[in-house]
Amino acid sequence: MEKAVMNIARRLQLIALLVMLALAFLSWFSINRLSAANNDLGYVTDNTVPSISLIKQVQADFYELHALIQTHVLNTDNNKMSQIETGIADLRTEISSLLKKYEAEMLSNEEDRQLTTDDQRIIEQYYQEIEKVLILSRDNKNTEARDIIANNV
Length: 153
Known about the structure:
Layout: H1 2-74, H2 78-105, H3 110-138, H4 142-151
Helix pairs in contact: 1-2, 1-3, 2-3, 3-4
């Protein structure tokens, strides 16, 4: 009979040991997953959020650039058009600077690099079209300039 009691005690000890081992494994696994999540969150805060912020600034500058081009077309005063052209040149420089910073510091993979290259190609095409618009606008051919904006830009 005493042997049976000892056997039950041993079984209870074995069950307690298995529960403690399962808890230790679960704790290790949880800490490991939390560490991986922390690394992912660190990547988001160090790379993704600044990238989004920079892209948002490029987008805002681009909208401002487009507005200046339309303002240029609406003006007939050469002095005012000259001031607007200075603003356009400044924005183009700012956009170029931001894109270079993005390319140098914030690219995350090869797909991102390819998308950035495509964006730069599209921006260059846009700049070529707005040069046509500005030439027409300087000559006060505003209807033709507006047509290019409406159809091509």
